[in-house]
Amino acid sequence: MRRYVRELNVKLGSSARGVSLRKFGSAGSVGIYNEIGNIPVRNFAWGRWDDDEVFKITGETMAKTILERPYPCTTCPVACKRFVRVKPGKWFDKEFRGLGPEYETISLFGTNLLISDLEAIARMNEECDRLGLDTISTGNVIGFIFEAAEKGGLISKEIEGGLRLEWGGNADTVIKLIRKIAYREGIGDLLAEGVRRVSEKIGGQDFAVHVKGGLEMPAHDGRAFFAHALSFVTINRGGADHLGWPHMPWRGGIAVPELGINARDDRYNESEEVVDIVIKMQNLMTVYDSLVMCKYAFTAGLTVTDIINLLKYTTGKDYTVDKLMEIGDRIWKIERWINNQLGGITSKDDKLPKRMLTPHANRNDTKVPYVVEKWLPIYYRKRGLTEDGVVKELDV
Ligand code: SF4
Known about the structure:
Bound molecules: iron/sulfur cluster
Strand order of the largest sheet: 1-2-3
Helix content: 40-55%
Shape: globular
Order of helices and strands: HHHHHEEEHHHHHHEEHHHHHHH
Distance between the termini: 30 Å
């Protein structure tokens, strides 16, 4: 076991993706995701922001500016997390040394709100961390209220304390909103309810971006990868959960030979084969969750065979690829059953928000994942659900 883990540490830490994550963190994806339309811009209405602005908040720029060193979770050879140092100035009274923003935070507070000040985003990240707020949900709800103010009639642009709700405005407004949300002060009391409930109260459901259960959208877009869209509507943890399945077979060409998955470059493939791939990858990620393993281990090169070997050395038991898939599928079904029984979740809830079914307003080289509607009945059949998306029987 010890020898195997030592060898794995070398393999994962020296792989091209492992090295890239160590150098640039998860934010190393900001530039490429802007290029392909996977990053949120203006509450997901746009599919791209100005390259020069985006460049200011990439992982590469962070490495040249505020990054002090890569920071690992215990014993991790990849060290994707960022330990940053920001000098005293506009955003920090004293020198700040601590964890810096990751891809999702930079996207939801940066491109999503049209803010390209990395130090300001580091402060927003720190505020959210200290106050116990999720940066994805917080960036989403602020993006939603900015759009509501822009559209007019739902909420005025000028609110309490002279704050102006507008894209790319003073980043200080966002920091103040974060604090208001945490303490439920003024407009923060409304925003603390999340995008779905805010839209139910003030209107704007057409541009309320969330998937079943009201969980806000991560910084990934079904209009960049159709397979994303299918996984977003079928994953069990709240809604558009980007950790429920890795998009790497498409995004970066990672093959999973043990599951018969080849590296891909056909992100708009509409064939039934995509349904199989999504199910297999969801099952694999469920196994990752159960083993409490980081999804970046997959990115950095941990194979299914490695997992089977680690399980053997840890438990003495022989697992197979089929067994892991069976376990992943069973856990997925238990989760779905709980959602069916306690949440009343059925096929009626497996829907993309309207915004995800609308073309990006400022580019025409991305596509709308209408295909999800065609895929869902196939997905239910392959998962052994009824046509309404309900688990028929549990095999536990
Ligand atoms: S365990 Fe995962 S999240 Fe933690 S530093 Fe390593 S790669 Fe990053």
